[in-house]
Each structure stands twice: as C-alpha cells, then as structure tokens.
C-alpha cells in the first residue's frame, strides 16, 4: 500500500509523547517525496490517456493515486508542524540557548525558525511592563508561598503592611513579608528576594 | 524532557478529523474491510492475494480508513464498506447489555474514533451505531472516573489496559481524570450525535 513511509514519520513523533525532539528524518522525507513524484507522474500519464483515448475506466485509479498524494502531503505537513511545536516548547523549557545535542536534531530551516521565534518572543517581552519589559518565561507556575524572605538593598524608610505593622526597611535588613506587597519594591531594586 | 510547553494538535471532534493531528492520522491508518464496486486498472499490485494487473470489480480487500474515505462516494459505486464486527448488531447488543465488560483495547484500540468515522459511510445502521458509541462511552467513563478518583496510589494499570485510546489519553494526563477533560470528551460525543 502507498504512504507507508509517511505514516512511519508520524509514528516516530507520536512515540515521543512527552515532547522530545527526535532527529530530523531527512531520509524518510525524501522517500515520501519520491513516492509522491512517482504517483504524480503515473497520474499525469493516465489522465492524458483518459482524455485522448476516452478511457474513462482509468478514473478510479487516478482518484486512488490522488488520495495517496493528499495523504502523503498531510503526513509531511503534520510531521513538520508537530516538530515546530516541539521546537517552540524548547524555548520555554531550556531558554534561548539550546544544548548541542538538541540542536543536532534540527535541520537548518528549523534552526532558523527557532532563531526567529526567539526574536519575536524577545521583542514581545520587551514591550510589556513599561520600560524594562517582563520576562514571562520565568515563574510560569503560581508561587507556592504567600510570604517570601527579602533582603533590603537600600534604605527605604518605613513600610506598612496590611495588618498595620510597620517595618523599617534599612539596608541589609532581612524580612519575611507578603509576596504581593514586595513585588513592586523588588522590581524597583529596593528589596531582593532571598532564595534559600 | 518534562515539557509542559508542548501542545500537540488534538484529535478532531466526533466525525471530524483535525488535518494536523497525529492522533487522527494514526486513527485513519486503521484498515477496513471493503468491496470494490468498479475496476481499478493498473493497481493490481495493491491486492496481494491475486496476480492480476487490475483490481477487478467485486474484490474483497482491506483498505486504510483514509483511502476508503477518499474513494467513497454516496451516489456513485466506487467502494462499499463493510461494518467491522465490533459495530455490528451482535456486538452492539453486548455493549448495551453491559458496556463495562468488554476489553476495548483488544477489540481494536480506536473503538470510539473509528466508530465515529464509520458514520461517514451511510450505513442504514448509523443511528444505532452512534447511539451505542455514546452510551458505551458514558457508562465506561462513569466507572473509570469513579476508579481514578478513588485510587490515587493503587495500581490502575489493569483498568487502563482495557480502555480504548481516547480514554487512555485522559489517564496519561497526570495519571487520573481531569474533570474538565472528561466533561469535554463526553460533550464531544454528545454534541456530535
């Protein structure tokens, strides 16, 4: 049956349901494209014969080969698209510098796509949060704790928290404060989140 | 790589397929018993049992679902599709008697998906087939959800093995039913009826 090589490409990806990127199967792709060429040529010749000699009985076979061409096209497109979804996920999981063993699995066009995706994402992030931008690839999970340990980087004077308590923010002092109250001061560089 | 940023194209709803969905492509690779209703010249090599140059009219053979869908035409007779056993009256009776008893994975892992696709071929039994698919899913879903909600640390592999692939997807996501997924899945079958 036709399109067996194409389904192998799909299986290759489907096996790795966790999103890993297997090596680019250039050979497999080439075989699918060769099959498509052969199918197309056979159909061209049959269509000409059907037209010129009025052989309408060839039409079911022409239709069958056409279905095979469409199937191969679908498989190749889905293969390439699913790989891009995995490559996109790499930016979020690994950051903007990919480990060499992952890069080896990508073809030249995919590397180029990754570099353009990185640029798009970077310019989008720069456009958020006023002047400094916002790195949305950090802290992708909701924070586990309501309170965080912070260290004061500069003298900031008195700071009132929700229950009325007043904290004196003196340089180098450490405090255990509600996260939401600190976020602005952290962004301003007054406080620093101490991660133990 | 434990990536939670990889979001593959999901399978289509009911009778629809998603063009780019790997799941749907694999589903449509499943073979169906068909009968040719016309000759297919010069394609005899596809039919392994005989040695002819053409596939004659009236040949019984198996074709993958994707090809069957592509060739099937309601008005013209190109191919006719035989209902696989598991969707026929005999098995439908079994499913309506006790939907939980059948080892769906053994019957063919794409029971629901393939069953929904069979509706493309205008069988006079379509309403009964759709009804059975829906009722079977609802009954099994109820039981699987009960088990998963109450078996956090137990070995549920025996149950999982017996489920068709769409239900396995729901298992794999975090090892138990996500209520939202389960509701979504059943809505797919219901709204498509």
Automatic annotation (TrEMBL), chain A:
The lineage of its organism: Eukaryota, Metazoa, Chordata, Craniata, Vertebrata. Required for correct functioning of the GINS complex, a complex that plays an essential role in the initiation of DNA replication, and progression of DNA replication forks. GINS complex is a core component of CDC45-MCM-GINS (CMG) helicase, the molecular machine that unwinds template DNA during replication, and around which the replisome is built. Required for correct functioning of the GINS complex, a complex that plays an essential role in the initiation of DNA replication, and progression of DNA replication forks. GINS complex seems to bind preferentially to single-stranded DNA. Its main location: nucleus. One of its GO terms (cellular component) is GINS complex. Residues 144-195 form the DNA replication complex GINS protein PSF1 C-terminal domain. GO terms for biological process: DNA strand elongation involved in mitotic DNA replication. Residues 53-128 form the GINS subunit domain. It comes from Oreochromis aureus. InterPro entries: GINS_A, GINS_bundle-like_dom_sf, GINS_Psf1, PSF1_C. It is found in: Chromosome; Nucleus. Component of the GINS complex. The keyword Nucleus applies. Belongs to the GINS1/PSF1 family. This is DNA replication complex GINS protein PSF1. SUPFAM superfamilies: GINS helical bundle-like. Pfam families: PSF1_C, Sld5. Keywords: Chromosome, DNA replication, Nucleus. It comes from the Eukaryota. Gene3D superfamilies: 1.20.58.1030.
TrEMBL record, chain B:
Residues 21-72 form the DNA replication complex GINS protein PSF3 N-terminal domain. One of its GO terms (biological process) is mitotic DNA replication initiation. Its main location: nucleus. It is found in: Nucleus. Residues 93-157 form the GINS subunit domain. The keyword Cytoplasm does not apply. InterPro entries: GINS_A, GINS_bundle-like_dom_sf, GINS_Psf3, GINS_Psf3_sf, PSF3_N. Keywords: DNA replication, Nucleus. The keyword Nucleus applies. One of its GO terms (cellular component) is GINS complex. Pfam families: PSF3_N, Sld5. Component of the GINS complex. Required for correct functioning of the GINS complex, a complex that plays an essential role in the initiation of DNA replication, and progression of DNA replication forks. GINS complex is a core component of CDC45-MCM-GINS (CMG) helicase, the molecular machine that unwinds template DNA during replication, and around which the replisome is built. Belongs to the GINS3/PSF3 family. PANTHER family: DNA REPLICATION COMPLEX GINS PROTEIN PSF3 (PTHR22768:SF0). This is DNA replication complex GINS protein PSF3. It comes from Oreochromis niloticus (Nile tilapia). The gene is GINS3.
């Amino acid at each position: 049956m036709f399109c067996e090589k194409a389904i192998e490409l799909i299986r290759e990806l489907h096996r790795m349901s966790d999103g890993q990127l297997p090596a680019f199967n250039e050979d497999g792709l080439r075989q699918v494209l060769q099959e498509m060429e052969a199918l197309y040529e056979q159909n061209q010749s049959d269509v000409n014969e059907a037209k010129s000699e009025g052989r309408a009985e060839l039409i079911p076979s022409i239709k069958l080969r056409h279905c095979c061409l469409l199937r191969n096209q679908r498989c190749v497109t889905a293969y390439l698209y699913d790989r891009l979804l995995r490559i996109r996920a790499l930016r979020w999981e690994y950051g903007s510098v990919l480990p060499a063993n992952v890069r080896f699995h990508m073809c030249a066009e995919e590397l180029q796509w990754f570099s353009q995706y990185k640029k798009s994402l970077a310019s989008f992030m720069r456009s958020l949060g006023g002047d400094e931008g916002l790195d949305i690839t950090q802290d992708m999970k909701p924070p586990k704790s309501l309170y965080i340990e912070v260290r004061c980087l500069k003298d900031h004077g008195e700071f009132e928290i929700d229950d009325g308590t007043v904290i004196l923010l003196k340089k180098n002092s450490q405090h255990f404060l509600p996260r939401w109250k600190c976020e602005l001061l952290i962004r301003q560089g007054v406080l620093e989140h101490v991660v133990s | 790589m434990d990536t939670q940023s990889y979001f593959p194209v999901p399978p289509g709803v009911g009778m629809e397929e998603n063009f780019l969905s790997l799941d749907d492509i694999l589903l449509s690779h499943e073979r169906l018993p068909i009968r040719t209703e016309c000759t297919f010249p010069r394609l005899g090599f596809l039919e392994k049992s005989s040695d002819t140059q053409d596939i004659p009219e009236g040949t019984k053979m198996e074709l993958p679902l994707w090809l069957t869908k592509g060739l099937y035409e309601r008005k013209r007779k190109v191919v006719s599709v035989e209902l696989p056993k598991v969707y026929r009256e005999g098995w439908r009776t079994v499913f309506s008697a006790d939907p939980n008893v059948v080892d769906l994975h053994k019957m063919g892992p794409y029971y629901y998906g393939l069953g929904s696709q069979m509706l493309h071929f205008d069988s006079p039994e379509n309403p009964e087939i759709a009804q059975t698919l829906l009722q079977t899913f609802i009954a099994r879903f109820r039981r699987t959800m009960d088990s998963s909600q109450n078996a956090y640390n137990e070995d549920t592999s025996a149950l999982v093995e017996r489920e068709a692939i769409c239900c396995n997807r729901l298992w794999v996501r975090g090892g138990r039913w996500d209520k939202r997924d389960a509701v979504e899945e059943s809505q797919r079958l219901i709204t498509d009826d």
